[in-house]
Amino acid sequence: MAEDGPSAAMRVFAQLDLVIIAAALPLFLLADLPIIGYVVASIAWLIQRFVRAAAEQRISQGGEARTIALLTAGSLVGPIWFMTMTVLIVGIAVSRPDGLAAALLTLALFTVSLPVRMLKKKAGA
Q1: 93-118 residue pLDDT tens
Q2: Measuring CA to CA, how many Å separate 84 from each of 12, 15, 68, 111?
Q3: What does pTM read for this prediction?
Q4: Got the DSSP string for 28-97?
Q5: What gap in Å lies between CA 49 and CA 85, rounded to an integer?
Q6: Which residues of the chain have pLDDT under 50?
Q7: Residue among 69, 84, 80, 75 nearest 52 (CA)
Q8: How far apart, in whole angstroms, are the C-alpha atoms of residue 19 and residue 11?
Q9: What are the distances in angstroms from CA 73 to CA 20, 26, 62?
């Protein structure tokens, strides 16, 4: 009997970025890293994740080719711009160490998220 959805392992793997956010908090606290950078980067990541998921759901529903193309391009480039602007604003508005902390967390999240997204596409999840 064929499965019509992603496997349980793939569903868990797809949430790896959330695991990193949760695991980074004790690290930030124990290493006395700037917590504002962590909080802002985490919230921004969750916002872009929600928006990207909504765009991907809309893309999967089909529709006008122009709309699908715009949503696809936006869901690929938008998160990078959004997170970059978030890190920049934290670095300028709060402090450079907070911006660096936000940048490091963002880098870790993108490092995990991009391969996971590619594997999800390949698996048809």
Answers
A1: 999 999 999 999 999 999 998 888 88
A2: 27, 22, 24, 14
A3: 0.84
A4: HHHTT--HHHHHHHHHHHHHHHHHHHHHHHHHHT---HHHHHHHHHHHHHHHHHHHHHHHHHHHHHT-HH
A5: 15
A6: 1-2
A7: 75
A8: 13
A9: 26, 35, 15
